[in-house]
Amino acid sequence: MNPQDVLEAFDLLPDWEDRFEFVAELGSGLPTMPGEQKTDANLVKGCNTRAWLTAHLSGDAPPRLVYEADAETPLVRGLVALLLVPFRDKTPAEVLATDAAAFFGPLGLEKHLSANRRAGMEAFIGRVMALAREHAAHP
Predict the structure, then answer these.
(1) Which of 83, 38, 64, 68 is closest to 132 using CA atoms?
(2) Does residue 102 surpass a pLDDT of 80?
(3) Residue 96 near residue 135, CB atoms below 8 Å
(4) How far is residue 107's CA from residue 60's CA, in Å, rounded to a whole number?
(5) What is the pLDDT of residues 58-89, one digit of tens each?
(6) Residues 53/28, Cβ–Cβ less than 8 Å
(7) CATH code reported for the domain at 3-32+43-137
(8) Of the ranges 4-13, 25-34, 103-112, 123-132, the best mean pLDDT one
């Protein structure tokens, strides 16, 4: 799913109960992360619910970042899938140039999530960017 598809889906859904159901459905489409990758090193620090994130470069020219993520609960798994949308199929430099707030702001998520969930979102996006910086420095 691309960013425009997500924005259109949020516009079409009449209320936040439906939008959160949509977010949970996004999580069901997230590939399961292998257990051996669910390590403390891959844990996103700052999330109340355990969530993991890794990245590697694709074999494309130019190489693109491929993120793999998982979380313990269906809602957080859905949020993780949603948080990855604006960063998919991008080079490390493109990820670093992505304005996450420009994508997430219009969704209005921050008004409908607890302070802990918002902090977790920020921590997750911070980890996305840190992985992009690592791969940009060491291609």
Answers:
(1) 64
(2) yes
(3) no
(4) 31
(5) 999 999 999 999 999 998 999 999 999 999 99
(6) no
(7) 3.90.1010.10
(8) 123-132
Nearest to 70 by CA among 83, 55, 81: 81
Cα angle 24-27-29, degrees, rounded to a multiple of 5: 125
Contacts of 4 (CB under 8 A, 6+ apart): none
- Please, which residues have CB within 8 angstroms of residue 44's CB and are 6 or more apart in sequence? 51, 52, 53, 120, 123, 124, 127
CB-based contacts of 16, cutoff 8 Å, min separation 6: 112
Q: How far is it, in rounded angstroms, from Cα 137 to Cα 139?
A: 6
